[in-house]
Amino acid sequence: MILCRVTGTVWSTQKNAHLAGHRLLLCQPVALDGETGEGASFVAVDRVDAGEGDLVLVNAEGGGARLVLNDDLAPLRNLVVAVVDAIDVDGEPTR
Amino acid sequence: MILCRVTGTVWSTQKNAHLAGHRLLLCQPVALDGETGEGASFVAVDRVDAGEGDLVLVNAEGGGARLVLNDDLAPLRNLVVAVVDAIDVDGEPTR
Amino acid sequence: MILCRVTGTVWSTQKNAHLAGHRLLLCQPVALDGETGEGASFVAVDRVDAGEGDLVLVNAEGGGARLVLNDDLAPLRNLVVAVVDAIDVDGEPTR
Amino acid sequence: MILCRVTGTVWSTQKNAHLAGHRLLLCQPVALDGETGEGASFVAVDRVDAGEGDLVLVNAEGGGARLVLNDDLAPLRNLVVAVVDAIDVDGEPTR
Amino acid sequence: MILCRVTGTVWSTQKNAHLAGHRLLLCQPVALDGETGEGASFVAVDRVDAGEGDLVLVNAEGGGARLVLNDDLAPLRNLVVAVVDAIDVDGEPTR
Protein backbone atom coordinates (compact mmCIF):
# COMPACT_ATOMS: atom_id res chain seq x y z
CA MET A 1 0.00 0.00 0.00
CA ILE A 2 1.24 3.47 -0.76
CA LEU A 3 0.39 6.86 0.67
CA CYS A 4 -1.60 9.11 -1.68
CA ARG A 5 -3.48 12.39 -1.64
CA VAL A 6 -6.85 12.33 -3.42
CA THR A 7 -6.67 15.25 -5.84
CA GLY A 8 -9.65 14.84 -8.13
CA THR A 9 -12.22 12.74 -9.93
CA VAL A 10 -12.34 11.17 -13.40
CA TRP A 11 -15.58 10.94 -15.39
CA SER A 12 -16.29 8.43 -18.15
CA THR A 13 -19.46 7.21 -19.86
CA GLN A 14 -17.87 4.96 -22.51
CA LYS A 15 -16.33 2.33 -20.28
CA ASN A 16 -16.24 -1.32 -19.25
CA ALA A 17 -19.59 -2.27 -17.68
CA HIS A 18 -17.94 -3.51 -14.48
CA LEU A 19 -16.59 -0.05 -13.72
CA ALA A 20 -20.12 1.38 -13.58
CA GLY A 21 -21.24 2.63 -10.18
CA HIS A 22 -17.72 3.09 -8.83
CA ARG A 23 -16.18 6.48 -8.09
CA LEU A 24 -12.88 6.92 -9.95
CA LEU A 25 -10.52 9.01 -7.82
CA LEU A 26 -7.34 10.70 -8.98
CA CYS A 27 -4.57 9.74 -6.55
CA GLN A 28 -1.22 11.50 -6.24
CA PRO A 29 1.48 9.48 -4.43
CA VAL A 30 2.99 11.66 -1.68
CA ALA A 31 5.93 11.61 0.72
CA LEU A 32 5.54 11.12 4.48
CA ASP A 33 4.73 14.80 4.99
CA GLY A 34 1.51 14.03 3.11
CA GLU A 35 2.13 16.91 0.71
CA THR A 36 5.18 16.43 -1.52
CA GLY A 37 4.21 14.63 -4.71
CA GLU A 38 6.22 11.52 -5.67
CA GLY A 39 5.75 10.18 -9.18
CA ALA A 40 2.76 10.23 -11.50
CA SER A 41 -0.92 10.35 -10.52
CA PHE A 42 -3.12 7.35 -11.25
CA VAL A 43 -6.79 6.43 -10.97
CA ALA A 44 -8.22 4.25 -8.18
CA VAL A 45 -11.67 3.04 -7.17
CA ASP A 46 -12.91 4.32 -3.82
CA ARG A 47 -14.20 1.85 -1.22
CA VAL A 48 -13.91 3.80 2.03
CA ASP A 49 -15.83 7.00 1.25
CA ALA A 50 -12.66 8.95 0.69
CA GLY A 51 -13.02 12.42 -0.77
CA GLU A 52 -10.90 15.06 -2.42
CA GLY A 53 -8.12 16.24 -0.15
CA ASP A 54 -8.01 13.06 1.95
CA LEU A 55 -4.73 11.29 2.68
CA VAL A 56 -5.30 7.62 1.84
CA LEU A 57 -3.66 4.22 1.45
CA VAL A 58 -4.01 2.66 -2.00
CA ASN A 59 -3.45 -1.02 -2.72
CA ALA A 60 -2.41 -1.88 -6.27
CA GLU A 61 -3.37 -5.43 -7.13
CA GLY A 62 -6.07 -6.92 -9.31
CA GLY A 63 -6.97 -10.01 -7.35
CA GLY A 64 -7.56 -8.03 -4.17
CA ALA A 65 -9.62 -5.41 -5.96
CA ARG A 66 -11.97 -7.97 -7.46
CA LEU A 67 -12.43 -9.68 -4.10
CA VAL A 68 -13.23 -6.45 -2.29
CA LEU A 69 -15.67 -5.36 -5.00
CA ASN A 70 -17.14 -8.87 -5.08
CA ASP A 71 -16.99 -8.68 -8.87
CA ASP A 72 -14.88 -11.29 -10.63
CA LEU A 73 -14.86 -9.35 -13.87
CA ALA A 74 -13.82 -5.88 -12.67
CA PRO A 75 -10.79 -4.87 -14.76
CA LEU A 76 -8.99 -2.67 -12.24
CA ARG A 77 -6.21 -2.96 -9.72
CA ASN A 78 -5.98 0.25 -7.68
CA LEU A 79 -8.25 0.43 -4.67
CA VAL A 80 -8.44 3.09 -1.93
CA VAL A 81 -8.48 0.92 1.21
CA ALA A 82 -7.96 3.35 4.13
CA VAL A 83 -8.12 7.00 5.09
CA VAL A 84 -5.02 7.87 7.13
CA ASP A 85 -5.51 9.47 10.56
CA ALA A 86 -1.89 9.81 11.63
CA ILE A 87 1.67 8.74 10.85
CA ASP A 88 4.35 8.23 13.49
CA VAL A 89 8.00 8.28 12.42
CA ASP A 90 10.62 7.37 15.02
CA GLY A 91 7.93 7.68 17.66
CA GLU A 92 6.96 11.23 16.66
CA PRO A 93 3.78 12.18 14.79
CA THR A 94 4.52 13.72 11.39
CA ARG A 95 1.11 15.22 10.86
CA MET B 1 -5.54 2.42 -14.02
CA ILE B 2 -3.46 5.08 -15.64
CA LEU B 3 -4.31 7.92 -17.98
CA CYS B 4 -3.08 7.44 -21.56
CA ARG B 5 -3.45 9.00 -24.96
CA VAL B 6 -4.00 6.54 -27.83
CA THR B 7 -1.32 7.46 -30.36
CA GLY B 8 -1.32 4.64 -32.88
CA THR B 9 -1.88 1.04 -33.87
CA VAL B 10 0.42 -1.99 -34.06
CA TRP B 11 0.07 -4.62 -36.78
CA SER B 12 1.26 -8.22 -36.52
CA THR B 13 0.51 -11.39 -38.46
CA GLN B 14 3.02 -13.74 -36.77
CA LYS B 15 1.54 -13.79 -33.27
CA ASN B 16 -0.05 -15.85 -30.51
CA ALA B 17 -3.43 -17.18 -31.71
CA HIS B 18 -5.25 -15.66 -28.74
CA LEU B 19 -4.29 -12.16 -29.81
CA ALA B 20 -6.12 -12.59 -33.14
CA GLY B 21 -9.16 -10.39 -33.63
CA HIS B 22 -8.09 -7.78 -31.06
CA ARG B 23 -7.00 -4.27 -31.96
CA LEU B 24 -3.55 -3.48 -30.56
CA LEU B 25 -3.39 0.20 -29.60
CA LEU B 26 -0.28 2.20 -28.88
CA CYS B 27 -0.81 4.02 -25.58
CA GLN B 28 1.27 6.92 -24.30
CA PRO B 29 0.92 7.60 -20.54
CA VAL B 30 0.10 11.30 -20.04
CA ALA B 31 -0.10 13.84 -17.21
CA LEU B 32 -3.39 15.30 -15.97
CA ASP B 33 -3.42 17.87 -18.75
CA GLY B 34 -3.97 14.91 -21.08
CA GLU B 35 -1.06 16.00 -23.28
CA THR B 36 2.33 15.81 -21.55
CA GLY B 37 3.88 12.39 -22.08
CA GLU B 38 5.07 10.50 -18.99
CA GLY B 39 7.28 7.49 -19.58
CA ALA B 40 7.41 4.98 -22.41
CA SER B 41 4.55 3.96 -24.70
CA PHE B 42 3.18 0.43 -24.51
CA VAL B 43 0.64 -1.71 -26.35
CA ALA B 44 -2.88 -2.44 -25.05
CA VAL B 45 -5.92 -4.29 -26.32
CA ASP B 46 -8.97 -2.14 -26.94
CA ARG B 47 -12.32 -3.12 -25.40
CA VAL B 48 -14.29 0.13 -25.44
CA ASP B 49 -14.03 1.19 -29.10
CA ALA B 50 -11.32 3.71 -28.36
CA GLY B 51 -9.60 5.30 -31.32
CA GLU B 52 -6.48 7.27 -32.08
CA GLY B 53 -6.41 10.56 -30.20
CA ASP B 54 -8.73 9.40 -27.41
CA LEU B 55 -7.82 9.94 -23.76
CA VAL B 56 -8.31 6.60 -22.02
CA LEU B 57 -7.83 4.63 -18.82
CA VAL B 58 -5.66 1.53 -19.14
CA ASN B 59 -5.61 -1.28 -16.59
CA ALA B 60 -2.42 -3.34 -16.45
CA GLU B 61 -3.11 -6.79 -15.08
CA GLY B 62 -3.26 -10.21 -16.70
CA GLY B 63 -6.03 -11.84 -14.68
CA GLY B 64 -8.41 -8.97 -15.35
CA ALA B 65 -7.60 -8.91 -19.04
CA ARG B 66 -8.34 -12.60 -19.48
CA LEU B 67 -11.63 -12.28 -17.62
CA VAL B 68 -12.79 -9.32 -19.69
CA LEU B 69 -11.80 -11.02 -22.96
CA ASN B 70 -13.39 -14.27 -21.72
CA ASP B 71 -10.27 -16.06 -22.94
CA ASP B 72 -8.27 -17.98 -20.35
CA LEU B 73 -5.27 -18.24 -22.65
CA ALA B 74 -4.84 -14.64 -23.78
CA PRO B 75 -1.24 -13.67 -23.01
CA LEU B 76 -1.69 -9.95 -22.39
CA ARG B 77 -2.14 -7.59 -19.47
CA ASN B 78 -2.88 -4.09 -20.75
CA LEU B 79 -6.52 -3.36 -21.47
CA VAL B 80 -8.18 -0.08 -22.46
CA VAL B 81 -11.16 -0.01 -20.08
CA ALA B 82 -12.61 3.52 -20.37
CA VAL B 83 -12.64 6.61 -22.55
CA VAL B 84 -12.28 9.69 -20.33
CA ASP B 85 -14.90 12.44 -20.62
CA ALA B 86 -13.58 14.83 -18.00
CA ILE B 87 -11.16 15.21 -15.09
CA ASP B 88 -11.83 17.42 -12.08
CA VAL B 89 -8.87 18.50 -9.94
CA ASP B 90 -9.61 20.39 -6.72
CA GLY B 91 -13.18 20.79 -7.94
CA GLU B 92 -12.15 22.39 -11.23
CA PRO B 93 -12.30 20.70 -14.63
CA THR B 94 -8.84 20.35 -16.21
CA ARG B 95 -10.03 19.68 -19.71
CA MET C 1 11.77 -9.60 -1.20
CA ILE C 2 13.51 -6.32 -0.57
CA LEU C 3 15.50 -4.99 2.34
CA CYS C 4 13.73 -2.25 4.35
CA ARG C 5 14.13 -0.33 7.56
CA VAL C 6 10.92 0.04 9.63
CA THR C 7 10.66 3.78 10.25
CA GLY C 8 7.19 4.30 11.66
CA THR C 9 3.53 3.36 12.01
CA VAL C 10 0.38 4.44 10.17
CA TRP C 11 -2.96 4.85 11.98
CA SER C 12 -6.37 4.64 10.33
CA THR C 13 -9.91 4.17 11.64
CA GLN C 14 -11.82 4.62 8.36
CA LYS C 15 -10.54 1.58 6.46
CA ASN C 16 -11.39 -1.71 4.81
CA ALA C 17 -12.66 -4.16 7.44
CA HIS C 18 -10.04 -6.76 6.48
CA LEU C 19 -7.22 -4.46 7.50
CA ALA C 20 -8.52 -4.31 11.10
CA GLY C 21 -6.26 -5.87 13.70
CA HIS C 22 -3.11 -5.62 11.60
CA ARG C 23 -0.24 -3.27 12.40
CA LEU C 24 0.57 -1.01 9.45
CA LEU C 25 4.32 -0.34 9.36
CA LEU C 26 6.10 2.36 7.39
CA CYS C 27 8.93 0.71 5.47
CA GLN C 28 11.85 2.53 3.86
CA PRO C 29 13.76 0.49 1.25
CA VAL C 30 17.48 0.62 2.08
CA ALA C 31 20.82 -0.32 0.51
CA LEU C 32 22.96 -3.20 1.74
CA ASP C 33 24.47 -1.04 4.48
CA GLY C 34 20.99 -1.09 6.03
CA GLU C 35 20.95 2.69 6.29
CA THR C 36 20.96 4.48 2.93
CA GLY C 37 17.40 5.01 1.73
CA GLU C 38 16.52 3.83 -1.80
CA GLY C 39 13.25 5.05 -3.25
CA ALA C 40 9.95 5.93 -1.61
CA SER C 41 8.56 4.55 1.65
CA PHE C 42 5.47 2.37 1.58
CA VAL C 43 3.15 0.67 4.07
CA ALA C 44 3.30 -3.04 4.94
CA VAL C 45 1.48 -5.35 7.33
CA ASP C 46 3.65 -6.87 10.05
CA ARG C 47 3.59 -10.67 10.57
CA VAL C 48 6.86 -11.30 12.41
CA ASP C 49 6.64 -8.90 15.37
CA ALA C 50 8.94 -6.39 13.72
CA GLY C 51 9.26 -3.02 15.38
CA GLU C 52 10.49 0.47 14.57
CA GLY C 53 14.18 0.46 13.73
CA ASP C 54 14.28 -3.19 12.63
CA LEU C 55 15.90 -4.21 9.34
CA VAL C 56 13.39 -6.46 7.58
CA LEU C 57 12.55 -8.31 4.38
CA VAL C 58 9.29 -7.26 2.74
CA ASN C 59 7.48 -9.35 0.12
CA ALA C 60 5.25 -7.43 -2.27
CA GLU C 61 2.53 -9.68 -3.65
CA GLY C 62 -1.19 -9.92 -3.00
CA GLY C 63 -1.71 -13.66 -3.30
CA GLY C 64 1.03 -14.43 -0.81
CA ALA C 65 -0.23 -11.82 1.64
CA ARG C 66 -3.75 -13.24 1.67
CA LEU C 67 -2.45 -16.78 2.19
CA VAL C 68 -0.23 -15.78 5.10
CA LEU C 69 -3.02 -13.77 6.74
CA ASN C 70 -5.46 -16.61 6.03
CA ASP C 71 -7.91 -13.96 4.82
CA ASP C 72 -9.07 -14.24 1.21
CA LEU C 73 -10.42 -10.71 1.20
CA ALA C 74 -7.48 -8.74 2.58
CA PRO C 75 -6.72 -5.96 0.07
CA LEU C 76 -3.00 -5.60 0.62
CA ARG C 77 0.22 -6.82 -0.94
CA ASN C 78 3.17 -5.75 1.22
CA LEU C 79 4.02 -8.10 4.06
CA VAL C 80 6.97 -8.00 6.47
CA VAL C 81 8.16 -11.64 6.35
CA ALA C 82 11.53 -11.65 8.14
CA VAL C 83 13.73 -9.67 10.51
CA VAL C 84 17.30 -9.66 9.19
CA ASP C 85 20.07 -10.86 11.51
CA ALA C 86 23.04 -10.49 9.17
CA ILE C 87 24.06 -9.95 5.56
CA ASP C 88 27.19 -11.43 4.02
CA VAL C 89 28.58 -9.88 0.84
CA ASP C 90 31.49 -11.63 -0.89
CA GLY C 91 31.87 -13.74 2.23
CA GLU C 92 32.21 -10.74 4.54
CA PRO C 93 29.50 -9.55 6.97
CA THR C 94 28.26 -6.04 6.11
CA ARG C 95 26.62 -5.40 9.44
CA MET D 1 2.82 -5.68 -23.88
CA ILE D 2 5.90 -3.68 -24.69
CA LEU D 3 7.88 -3.23 -27.86
CA CYS D 4 11.30 -4.94 -27.84
CA ARG D 5 14.12 -5.76 -30.20
CA VAL D 6 15.51 -9.30 -29.89
CA THR D 7 19.25 -8.80 -29.44
CA GLY D 8 20.60 -12.18 -28.43
CA THR D 9 20.24 -15.55 -26.78
CA VAL D 10 21.02 -16.84 -23.27
CA TRP D 11 22.37 -20.35 -22.64
CA SER D 12 22.01 -22.29 -19.42
CA THR D 13 22.41 -25.96 -18.48
CA GLN D 14 21.98 -25.66 -14.69
CA LYS D 15 18.36 -24.51 -14.56
CA ASN D 16 14.81 -25.25 -13.46
CA ALA D 17 13.53 -28.34 -15.32
CA HIS D 18 10.47 -26.46 -16.62
CA LEU D 19 12.66 -24.07 -18.58
CA ALA D 20 14.14 -26.95 -20.62
CA GLY D 21 13.29 -26.93 -24.32
CA HIS D 22 12.46 -23.22 -24.44
CA ARG D 23 14.61 -20.66 -26.26
CA LEU D 24 15.65 -17.83 -23.94
CA LEU D 25 15.82 -14.58 -25.91
CA LEU D 26 17.50 -11.36 -24.84
CA CYS D 27 14.98 -8.54 -25.33
CA GLN D 28 15.84 -4.85 -25.38
CA PRO D 29 12.83 -2.51 -24.86
CA VAL D 30 12.80 0.08 -27.65
CA ALA D 31 11.04 3.32 -28.56
CA LEU D 32 8.48 3.61 -31.38
CA ASP D 33 11.25 3.99 -33.97
CA GLY D 34 12.10 0.37 -33.16
CA GLU D 35 15.75 1.27 -32.56
CA THR D 36 16.30 3.54 -29.54
CA GLY D 37 16.82 1.45 -26.42
CA GLU D 38 14.64 2.23 -23.37
CA GLY D 39 15.68 0.70 -20.07
CA ALA D 40 17.43 -2.56 -19.27
CA SER D 41 17.35 -5.77 -21.32
CA PHE D 42 15.63 -8.82 -19.91
CA VAL D 43 15.15 -12.48 -20.86
CA ALA D 44 11.94 -13.87 -22.39
CA VAL D 45 10.78 -17.23 -23.68
CA ASP D 46 9.99 -17.33 -27.40
CA ARG D 47 6.64 -18.70 -28.58
CA VAL D 48 6.29 -17.23 -32.07
CA ASP D 49 9.56 -18.27 -33.74
CA ALA D 50 11.09 -14.85 -33.29
CA GLY D 51 14.76 -14.49 -34.08
CA GLU D 52 17.60 -12.11 -33.43
CA GLY D 53 16.90 -8.70 -34.92
CA ASP D 54 13.10 -9.08 -34.87
CA LEU D 55 10.87 -6.36 -33.45
CA VAL D 56 8.48 -8.10 -31.07
CA LEU D 57 5.78 -7.62 -28.44
CA VAL D 58 6.59 -9.08 -25.02
CA ASN D 59 3.99 -9.75 -22.35
CA ALA D 60 5.24 -9.78 -18.76
CA GLU D 61 2.98 -11.86 -16.57
CA GLY D 62 3.38 -15.28 -14.96
CA GLY D 63 -0.15 -16.60 -15.19
CA GLY D 64 -0.35 -15.91 -18.91
CA ALA D 65 3.04 -17.47 -19.56
CA ARG D 66 2.12 -20.70 -17.81
CA LEU D 67 -1.18 -20.93 -19.70
CA VAL D 68 0.45 -20.38 -23.07
CA LEU D 69 3.20 -22.92 -22.33
CA ASN D 70 0.58 -25.31 -20.95
CA ASP D 71 2.93 -25.91 -18.01
CA ASP D 72 1.61 -25.04 -14.55
CA LEU D 73 5.07 -25.14 -13.03
CA ALA D 74 7.04 -22.93 -15.43
CA PRO D 75 8.72 -20.24 -13.33
CA LEU D 76 8.82 -17.40 -15.84
CA ARG D 77 6.82 -14.34 -16.75
CA ASN D 78 8.19 -12.80 -19.96
CA LEU D 79 6.82 -14.25 -23.18
CA VAL D 80 7.39 -13.10 -26.76
CA VAL D 81 3.82 -13.12 -28.12
CA ALA D 82 4.01 -11.34 -31.50
CA VAL D 83 6.41 -10.25 -34.23
CA VAL D 84 5.56 -6.69 -35.27
CA ASP D 85 4.90 -6.00 -38.96
CA ALA D 86 4.14 -2.29 -38.76
CA ILE D 87 3.33 0.58 -36.40
CA ASP D 88 1.08 3.49 -37.33
CA VAL D 89 1.33 6.71 -35.31
CA ASP D 90 -1.20 9.44 -36.01
CA GLY D 91 -2.21 7.54 -39.13
CA GLU D 92 1.34 7.43 -40.51
CA PRO D 93 3.55 4.33 -40.61
CA THR D 94 6.70 4.74 -38.48
CA ARG D 95 8.61 1.86 -39.99
CA MET E 1 13.55 -13.08 -15.97
CA ILE E 2 16.40 -10.72 -15.37
CA LEU E 3 20.15 -11.20 -15.30
CA CYS E 4 21.69 -10.93 -11.83
CA ARG E 5 25.00 -11.53 -10.10
CA VAL E 6 24.74 -13.33 -6.73
CA THR E 7 26.64 -11.09 -4.32
CA GLY E 8 25.85 -12.44 -0.88
CA THR E 9 23.58 -14.16 1.60
CA VAL E 10 20.96 -12.90 4.08
CA TRP E 11 20.48 -14.53 7.48
CA SER E 12 17.29 -14.40 9.54
CA THR E 13 15.95 -16.39 12.48
CA GLN E 14 12.78 -14.36 13.20
CA LYS E 15 10.87 -15.03 9.98
CA ASN E 16 7.80 -16.53 8.36
CA ALA E 17 7.83 -20.32 8.89
CA HIS E 18 7.52 -20.99 5.15
CA LEU E 19 10.87 -19.32 4.50
CA ALA E 20 12.66 -21.85 6.72
CA GLY E 21 15.07 -24.17 4.94
CA HIS E 22 15.54 -21.90 1.93
CA ARG E 23 18.76 -20.07 1.16
CA LEU E 24 18.19 -16.33 0.79
CA LEU E 25 20.58 -14.93 -1.82
CA LEU E 26 21.43 -11.29 -2.41
CA CYS E 27 21.01 -10.60 -6.12
CA GLN E 28 22.39 -7.57 -7.97
CA PRO E 29 20.79 -6.93 -11.39
CA VAL E 30 23.56 -6.53 -13.98
CA ALA E 31 23.99 -5.43 -17.59
CA LEU E 32 24.82 -7.83 -20.43
CA ASP E 33 28.52 -7.70 -19.59
CA GLY E 34 27.54 -9.52 -16.38
CA GLU E 35 29.38 -6.97 -14.27
CA THR E 36 27.84 -3.48 -14.39
CA GLY E 37 25.21 -3.11 -11.67
CA GLU E 38 21.75 -1.88 -12.73
CA GLY E 39 19.39 -0.79 -9.97
CA ALA E 40 19.00 -1.98 -6.39
CA SER E 41 19.85 -5.42 -5.01
CA PHE E 42 17.06 -7.65 -3.77
CA VAL E 43 16.70 -11.02 -2.04
CA ALA E 44 15.76 -14.25 -3.85
CA VAL E 45 15.35 -17.89 -2.90
CA ASP E 46 17.79 -20.27 -4.56
CA ARG E 47 16.47 -23.37 -6.35
CA VAL E 48 19.35 -24.29 -8.68
CA ASP E 49 22.30 -24.51 -6.27
CA ALA E 50 23.60 -21.11 -7.28
CA GLY E 51 26.39 -19.66 -5.23
CA GLU E 52 28.08 -16.33 -4.59
CA GLY E 53 29.62 -14.96 -7.75
CA ASP E 54 27.33 -16.88 -10.12
CA LEU E 55 25.54 -15.11 -12.98
CA VAL E 56 21.90 -16.17 -12.76
CA LEU E 57 18.39 -15.61 -14.10
CA VAL E 58 15.83 -14.51 -11.50
CA ASN E 59 12.08 -14.74 -12.02
CA ALA E 60 9.98 -12.30 -9.99
CA GLU E 61 6.48 -13.65 -9.49
CA GLY E 62 4.67 -15.08 -6.48
CA GLY E 63 2.53 -17.73 -8.15
CA GLY E 64 5.50 -19.28 -9.92
CA ALA E 65 7.60 -19.26 -6.77
CA ARG E 66 4.96 -21.11 -4.75
CA LEU E 67 4.51 -23.71 -7.50
CA VAL E 68 8.23 -24.38 -7.78
CA LEU E 69 8.64 -24.62 -4.00
CA ASN E 70 5.49 -26.77 -3.83
CA ASP E 71 4.41 -24.62 -0.88
CA ASP E 72 1.13 -22.73 -1.25
CA LEU E 73 1.90 -20.48 1.68
CA ALA E 74 5.41 -19.29 0.86
CA PRO E 75 5.35 -15.47 0.95
CA LEU E 76 8.03 -14.72 -1.62
CA ARG E 77 8.27 -13.87 -5.30
CA ASN E 78 11.93 -13.83 -6.37
CA LEU E 79 13.34 -17.18 -7.40
CA VAL E 80 16.76 -18.01 -8.90
CA VAL E 81 15.77 -20.30 -11.79
CA ALA E 82 18.94 -20.71 -13.89
CA VAL E 83 22.71 -20.31 -13.80
CA VAL E 84 23.85 -18.64 -17.02
CA ASP E 85 26.54 -20.37 -19.09
CA ALA E 86 26.79 -17.92 -21.98
CA ILE E 87 25.12 -14.94 -23.64
CA ASP E 88 25.23 -14.31 -27.39
CA VAL E 89 24.51 -10.80 -28.67
CA ASP E 90 24.22 -10.28 -32.41
CA GLY E 91 25.69 -13.76 -32.87
CA GLU E 92 28.78 -12.98 -30.79
CA PRO E 93 29.40 -14.32 -27.26
CA THR E 94 29.62 -11.50 -24.68
CA ARG E 95 31.27 -13.55 -22.00
Give a structural overview:
- The structure is a homopentamer.
- Chain A is mainly beta and about 100 residues long.
- Chain A has a single domain, classed as OB fold (Dihydrolipoamide Acetyltransferase, E2P), CATH 2.40.50.220.
- In chain A, about 10% of the residues lie in helices and about 40% in strands.
- Chain A is built from 1 helix and 7 strands; from the N terminus they run ββββαβββ.
- Chain A has a 5-stranded mixed beta barrel. In chain A, strands 6-7 form a two-stranded antiparallel sheet.
- In chain A, a hairpin with a 2-residue loop joins strand 6 and strand 7.
- Chains A and C meet through strand 4, helix 1, strand 5 and strand 6 of A and strand 1, strand 3 and helix 1 of C.
- Strand 6 of chain A pairs antiparallel with strand 1 of chain C.
